[in-house]
Design a protein that fits this description.
- The chain is α+β, with helices and mostly antiparallel strands.
- It has one domain: Glucose Permease (Domain IIA), CATH 2.70.70.10.
- It is built from five helices and 13 strands.
- It binds zinc ion (ZN).
- Zinc ion binds next to loops.
């Protein structure tokens, strides 16, 4: 059987936010501790972070900042869901984030149906989240969209069918999206186990090999670069 990464690689490029924004308006964003600009300004809350992102976009004449697959980040230290006395610290991001304006439409990456959805409440968590199920060449896999608006979950049902490029949601505000600047967290998941409307998007370094295998690089599918 063909590996999922090869199946994804062979598909045409796809967009998961507002399809009118050309990939030439996307700019890579480094949120690791090696980004000196980030470490200098150290945005401490969603408002400061949104300023940081919008300045970065303006400076680069861009509309979307993207990145974060297998990126070690310090920004999760503020939240006990990533760091507390009983779990090994989780700080490696295993999805792809697209940072842009509040309310931007979020689109189905591929034809699929709703596997599950949930409002994952809590500081640093996903807030409203939708997971779609796809099947290509007899390979079943899932795409996760996190940090959505509350309205995105209205009138949604498990099994609802979406076509590639069809709107499934909009980006949520900090008050509902886990307290982040507006963005969508996009992740591909091979084996979703018993997860429902949720799946880890950040992991501990000891589990990294498992997650690299189970969650291939979303850019294999999107083909932004
Ligand atoms: Zn993310």
């Amino acid at each position: 059987m063909k590996p999922l990464s090869a199946i994804l690689n062979a598909l045409p490029p796809t967009k998961i936010i507002d399809s009118s924004i050309d990939f030439s308006k996307y700019i890579p964003l480094d949120l690791s501790a090696t980004n000196e600009e980030l470490m200098d300004s150290r945005p401490e809350n969603a408002v400061e972070f949104e300023d940081f992102i919008s300045n970065y976009l303006k400076k680069n004449n861009a509309e979307v900042a993207f990145g974060g697959y297998i990126e070690g980040r310090t920004l999760y230290q503020r939240s006990t869901i990533f760091r507390n006395d009983s779990i090994p610290e989780r700080n490696i991001h295993i999805g792809l984030d697209l940072w842009t304006k509040l309310g931007t439409t979020v689109l189905a990456a591929l034809d699929g149906k709703v596997h599950s959805f949930k409002n994952n409440i809590g500081l640093g968590d996903y807030g409203p989240t939708i997971i779609l199920e796809h099947e290509i060449e007899n390979e079943k896999f899932y795409t996760l969209y996190g940090h959505l608006s509350l309205e995105s979950l209205d009138n949604l049902t498990v099994g609802k069918i979406f076509k590639k490029g069809e709107q499934i949601a909009t980006l949520g505000e900090a008050a509902v999206n886990g307290d982040y600047a507006p963005h969508v967290h996009f992740q591909i998941i091979k084996n979703i186990e018993d997860y429902w409307g949720d799946y880890p998007g950040v992991c501990n370094s000891n589990d990294l090999n498992f997650y690299i295998e189970n969650c291939p690089d979303p850019n294999l599918l999107l083909k932004i670069t």
